[in-house]
């Protein structure tokens, strides 16, 4: 008798607990920032493609899901800065295992991953994403290639400037990293306190170099003493 | 598919078709067919956090005779293929097959002699779900896309001919991602983008906006 009441009690108590069920199709909870979703082929800030058709992603792919066909840029038809571009680019999502080795292999940060995962289709053909589907949309100030290089005279200018002006891959890396750092530094009071200390130390060092407090883990100051 | 299709044409109306399809999709019992790692995600989908019971899928039936949907979760070896076919044959009509994960869809990274290169070599597949393994939301998305397909299924040959004569739709049933289909505003965006064939660009654009990047 008591046992029965106890077991019903367990069930009853759950009515007052927080609901764990996610309301998936109506409310889509954001994934972890580095979740491996479908790929994006990024563009330079002027709209030229970042892909140079080197096929390193296809070589790195353990499932043979990527097909790349390189082509030569000409004076009249330029798709990417430099010599070569990807004439055809396909990813077969019926094979892709989302391991991210292609992203590691890409030398120009052309290929990155988004967090999109709703990829199911009712035939195999729709799972093969073509270059048109993978290419990032044209954003402000971008122009549909082919067009000449607008950001410099050679491809070197593009890659040097890319540090400050990453083009569409900004969506894939920059903002996520900044968001992550912001989230974790605000929550972590210890890290914030250390950062404050460091700032103070820098100020005092500028004014009175000899009186600067010795911070652990800063070899340059230990050497001075 | 079922016995109601044997009824003479002209008796059943489209409303009845909708009702039949609705009852079919709203009590959609899956058969347990976990073969590998995807089965872990399938179990997670059935558990409290993702809870397939919200869509009337209640329990995974151990008997194929009580199941409508076979979720092939994992790689199918050559040795397992006849077993899979027999389970499929034992299921009562109407029945559907969901190929979960890349291994079931195409062999995935196991491009070798031991693995069947896609479960569609053995049974007809209604929806392919990529991912290795797909997260529970992806499985829910595939199931909801299949619901969408079932809702558009014709009842009887006459109706089938009618639908075929109407030609392909702009957004075919089962092609819109579930988070778009269940959100009126986003669904409208998707239909608009389908006119110019830029649905994938729309998806990336929306994702970038979610990440806090300024778009347009």
From TrEMBL, chain A:
Keywords: 4Fe-4S, Cell membrane, Iron, Iron-sulfur, Membrane, Metal-binding, NAD, Quinone, Repeat, Translocase, Ubiquinone
UniProt-listed Enzyme Commission number(s): 7.1.1.-
Cofactor field: [4Fe-4S] cluster
Function noted in UniProt: NDH-1 shuttles electrons from NADH, via FMN and iron-sulfur (Fe-S) centers, to quinones in the respiratory chain. The immediate electron acceptor for the enzyme in this species is believed to be ubiquinone. Couples the redox reaction to proton translocation (for every two electrons transferred, four hydrogen ions are translocated across the cytoplasmic membrane), and thus conserves the redox energy in a proton gradient.
Family: Belongs to the complex I 23 kDa subunit family.
Pfam family, one: Fer4_7
Subunit structure of this chain's protein: NDH-1 is composed of 14 different subunits. Subunits NuoA, H, J, K, L, M, N constitute the membrane sector of the complex.
GO molecular function: 4 iron, 4 sulfur cluster binding; iron ion binding; NADH dehydrogenase (quinone) (non-electrogenic) activity; quinone binding
Name listed for the protein in its UniProt record: NADH-quinone oxidoreductase subunit I
Location of this chain's protein in the cell: Cell membrane
Catalytic EC class: translocase
Residues at which [4Fe-4S] cluster 1 binds: 51, 54, 57, 106
Lineage: Bacteria, Bacillati, Actinomycetota, Actinomycetes, Glycomycetales
One example of a Gene Ontology biological process annotation: aerobic respiration
TrEMBL record, chain B:
Annotated Gene Ontology cellular component terms: plasma membrane; respiratory chain complex I
A Pfam family the protein falls into: Oxidored_q6
NCBIfam families: nuoB_fam, PRK06411.1
This enzyme's EC code(s): 7.1.1.-
Residues reported to bind [4Fe-4S] cluster: 37-38, 103, 132
InterPro entries (alphabetical): NADH_UbQ_OxRdtase-like_20kDa, NADH_UQ_OxRdtase_20Kd_su
Protein name: NADH-quinone oxidoreductase subunit B
Main localization of the protein described in the UniProt heading: membrane
Cofactor: [4Fe-4S] cluster
Keywords, ordered alphabetically: 4Fe-4S, Cell membrane, Iron, Iron-sulfur, Membrane, Metal-binding, NAD, Quinone, Translocase, Transport
Subcellular location: Cell membrane
Cofactor binding: number and manner: Binds 1 [4Fe-4S] cluster.
Function summary: NDH-1 shuttles electrons from NADH, via FMN and iron-sulfur (Fe-S) centers, to quinones in the respiratory chain. The immediate electron acceptor for the enzyme in this species is believed to be a menaquinone. Couples the redox reaction to proton translocation (for every two electrons transferred, four hydrogen ions are translocated across the cytoplasmic membrane), and thus conserves the redox energy in a proton gradient.
Reaction it catalyzes: a quinone + NADH + 5 H(+)(in) = a quinol + NAD(+) + 4 H(+)(out)
Gene: nuoB
Topology in the lipid bilayer: Peripheral membrane protein
GO biological process, alphabetically ordered: aerobic respiration; electron transport coupled proton transport
Assembly with partners or alone: NDH-1 is composed of 14 different subunits. Subunits NuoB, C, D, E, F, and G constitute the peripheral sector of the complex.
Record family assignment: Belongs to the complex I 20 kDa subunit family.
């Amino acid at each position: 008798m008591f046992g029965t009441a106890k077991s019903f009690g367990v069930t009853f108590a759950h009515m007052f607990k927080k609901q764990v069920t996610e309301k998936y199709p109506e409310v889509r909870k954001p994934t972890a920032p580095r979740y491996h979703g479908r790929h994006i082929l990024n563009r330079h800030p002027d709209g030229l493609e970042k892909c140079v058709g080197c096929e390193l992603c296809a070589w790195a792919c353990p499932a043979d899901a990527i097909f790349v066909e390189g082509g030569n840029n000409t004076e009249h038809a330029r798709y990417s800065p430099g010599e070569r571009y990807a004439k055809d680019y396909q990813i077969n999502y019926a094979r892709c295992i989302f391991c991210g080795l292609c992203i590691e292999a890409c030398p120009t940060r052309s290929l990155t991953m988004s967090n999109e995962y709703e990829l199911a289709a009712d035939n195999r053909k729709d799972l093969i994403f073509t270059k048109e589907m993978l290419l990032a949309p044209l954003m402000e100030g971008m122009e549909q290639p082919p067009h000449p290089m607008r950001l410099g005279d050679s491809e070197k200018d593009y890659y040097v400037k890319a540090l400050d002006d990453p083009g569409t891959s900004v969506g894939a890396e920059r903002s996520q990293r900044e968001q992550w750092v912001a989230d974790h530094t605000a929550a972590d009071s210890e890290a914030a306190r250390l950062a404050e200390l460091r700032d103070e130390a820098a100020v005092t060092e500028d004014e009175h170099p000899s009186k600067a407090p010795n911070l652990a883990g800063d070899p340059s100051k230990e050497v001075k003493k | 598919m079922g016995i109601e299709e044997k009824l003479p044409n002209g008796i059943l109306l489209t409303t009845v078709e909708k009702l039949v399809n609705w009852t079919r999709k709203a009590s959609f019992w899956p058969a347990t067919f976990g073969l590998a790692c995807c089965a872990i995600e399938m179990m997670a989908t059935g558990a409290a956090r993702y809870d397939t019971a919200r869509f009337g899928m209640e329990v995974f039936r151990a008997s194929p005779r009580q199941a409508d949907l076979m979720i092939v979760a994992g790689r199918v070896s050559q040795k397992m293929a006849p077993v899979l076919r027999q389970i499929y044959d034992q299921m009562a009509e109407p029945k559907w097959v969901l190929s979960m994960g890349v291994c079931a869809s195409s062999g995935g990274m196991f491009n070798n002699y031991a693995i069947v290169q896609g479960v569609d070599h053995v049974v007809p597949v209604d929806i392919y779900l990529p991912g290795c393994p797909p997260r529970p939301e992806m499985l829910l998305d595939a199931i909801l896309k299949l619901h969408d397909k079932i809702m558009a299924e014709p009842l009887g040959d006459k109706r089938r001919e009618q639908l075929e004569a109407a030609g392909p739709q702009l957004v075919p049933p089962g092609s819109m991602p579930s988070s778009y289909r269940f959100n009126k505003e986003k669904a409208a965006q998707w239909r608009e983008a389908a006119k110019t064939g830029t649905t994938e660009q729309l998806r990336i654009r929306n994702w970038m906006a979610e990440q806090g990047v300024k778009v347009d």
